[in-house]
Every structure is written in structure tokens, then in C-alpha cells.
């Protein structure tokens, strides 16, 4: 019973730590979406205008796919429920799909849990292991973007996909696959997000939900708009920013999902510890009462035996 109580203290402390961090991580993930989505819309619109023209933009070139690179984003720590397993299963399923199409596949693993997973599987080709920081930064995203850029430009791979966990709400997240290169219009998010404000009610942690409508939907450029610079130069200048923003966004979404999953897992563990303590108390009290009853019966039987003596 004492061991369970000590474990409960640990899990409750971990839940509070995750709860304190998840708000900041969620704000970073949700606030970064409008910029990433608008940048993607602008690039896609410019790219569409360039399709009829004979221009050479390497990062938008759609060529026959022979090899695909998967950037798999996992967490650095465990004790977060099925968070890491879910994204790794998603990546494995995607590899199986590519294998059926007779396409080669390589992995850029981001996160300690993913790194240890792929290190134990030498049959999977891994180009690079990246250990994430405590909080995703643009510098970390740029490092991954540079690797992806060089692999695509040198034609080591013909397509790059992001596999990460999208933050939906505090109690829900889902692994998703997003095409990173060549430039794709995919990746538009839901039109409404939920913010979560952590409060304390009656001495216990509580969560208040606040729905916020996103200004959605693709801004689109006017067909009458004229560019002072050559559109090719604009795309060349914006593509590095696009890579960095999309990868940073994936890291932020994954980090927020990891913290939310850890908070829920530790909350469930705390509840289980409380329930287990109650069950153990019942068993302990029954045994104690049975022992006392047995001792009383022995004393009474001994007293009766003394009365019967002459």
C-alpha cells in the first residue's frame, strides 16, 4: 500500500509538470498554423501559374518516384501512453505500402524513441538520427530541412514525406502523413481549434475548453496580380522558408501531442493508483479483522476450557 501511494505521488507530479508545459506547446503549435498554411497556399498558387511555362524549379519538380524519404517524428521520453507506438506504426504501414509498389524507402528519425526503435532494426535504411531538444526550435527544423533539401536536390530521393502526430485536442491526437517535397497542396488543417486553460478547482487540476475559429481556408492570389520579380526567384527564395516552417510545425504539433498524451497517461495512472489503494485497504482490513476474530475465538475457547477444569 505504501509503495502504491509513493507511485501515485510520482505520477501526479508528472501529470502536473506535463499540464504546465502543454499550454505553451499547444499555443506554439496552433499559432504557427496560419503562417504555415498561408505560405503553402501562396507557394502552391505561384507554382500553378508557372506550370504552363517552361521553368526549372528543382524543389517543385515532380519526377518518377523510385525512392521515398520518411521524416518520422517521435518523442524523446516514454510514459506517454501509445503516443510513440502510434506514429511508429503509421510509419511502418507507409513503408509496407511503398514496398508493395516496389519503391525504396529511407528514414530520417527525429526523437530518441524513434532512434532507439530503428537502431534495433538494421533491415530499415536510416539516413540520419536526430535527437530533439526539450522544445522545438527553428534551428532544429533548419538542420532537418538542410538534410531533406540536399537529398532531394541530389536526387537521392524523389519524394519526401513527414510522419508526425497532429495535435487535435488535449484528449485526442492522430498520426498523419504529409507530403513535404515536391511542393504539394496537401496539409490544410481543420477550421476550428480548441484552446485549453488549466485551472484549479477545489484543490484539483481542471481543464476549461475554449473553441477558437481559425481564419481558414487558403488566401488565394488574385489572377490580376503582377509580380515585380520573376516568380521563379520568388519560389526559390520562399522554398527554404517553406521547408523550415513545415518541419517546425510538425515538431511543435508532435511535442504538444506528446505532452497531452503524457498528461492523460499520468492522470490514468494516478486514478488507477487510487483505486488500487482502496482495493488493497479492503483486503488488508479483511485480513486484519479475520486475524483479530481468530485470536478472540482462541481466547474464548481457552477461557471455556479453564471453566471446565475441576
From TrEMBL:
InterPro entries with a match to the protein in the record: ATP_synth_F1_ATPase_gsu, ATP_synth_F1_gsu, ATP_synth_F1_gsu_CS
One GO term describing the cellular component: proton-transporting ATP synthase complex
Q: What is this protein called?
A: ATP synthase gamma chain
Give the keywords, sorted: ATP synthesis, CF(1), Hydrogen ion transport, Ion transport, Membrane, Transport
| Compartments (UniProt record) | Plastid, Chloroplast thylakoid membrane
Q: Which PROSITE patterns does the record cross-reference, listed alphabetically?
A: ATPASE_GAMMA
Task: Please tell me whether the keyword Cytoplasm is annotated for this protein.
Answer: no
Q: What SUPFAM superfamilies would the database entry show?
A: ATP synthase (F1-ATPase), gamma subunit
Functional summary from the UniProt entry: Produces ATP from ADP in the presence of a proton gradient across the membrane. The gamma chain is believed to be important in regulating ATPase activity and the flow of protons through the CF(0) complex.
Tell me, what is one Gene Ontology molecular-function annotation carried by this entry?
A: proton-transporting ATP synthase activity, rotational mechanism
* Predominant localisation class: plastid
For the keyword Transport, the answer is yes
